[in-house]
């Protein structure tokens, strides 16, 4: 049995009040609605990160110790990436990608702290989760890297980072089904971004990307709370 220390615990998030989760949902819906309507501008970048700010408040309230610190760092890098990708300037995609790269590596380090040992029975569960992730990553690399042109090295590094995040979630020895689901959903969101940018424009791409992105961040937050409880 895994027992979390008192100075690095994660209180069960489902016990918390619904005010912040509902604020998260409301903020996400407002942003996605305005974005789908075609509104643009620097103020939209600020609105884009409001749901992530709600998740940060949830992390502050319901997590503790190093788990909370790393979660807040990952959310902060995510918010930075959101802003960079929403603004228009030279190499904004590369800078945004870099911010999310740091977010993925921080998440991976956080999740690896609870990874199962190789001789643990849960290592079989990890393998069953890891194989589809690795297969999907290989297919994505074959599809995207030739189309990415001069951005191929940056795309490859980011792909490796998000795969590392997903595998670290897969390896968590706690009740990590929700955590792993969040990681896979994050991969799906980034896949939509890459397909839309490098392969062909997708219908309702912006809404689909943000819906899966916000859902992934929410699942990761609740998932780490459940896995380490």
Automatic annotation (TrEMBL):
Primary site of residence: membrane
Listed InterPro entries: TMEM86B-like (IPR012506)
Transmembrane feature ranges: 16-34, 40-60, 69-87, 93-115, 127-145, 151-170, 177-196, 202-224
One family name in Pfam for this protein: YhhN
Subcellular location per the Swiss-Prot or TrEMBL entry: Membrane
Origin superkingdom: Bacteria
Membrane topology: Multi-pass membrane protein
Gene Ontology CC: membrane
Transmembrane recorded as keyword: yes
Keyword vocabulary terms for this entry: Membrane, Transmembrane, Transmembrane helix
GO function term, MF aspect, one: hydrolase activity
PANTHER family given in the database record: GH04784P
Similarity field: Belongs to the TMEM86 family.
Protein name as catalogued: Uncharacterized membrane protein YhhN
Biological source species: Microbulbifer marinus
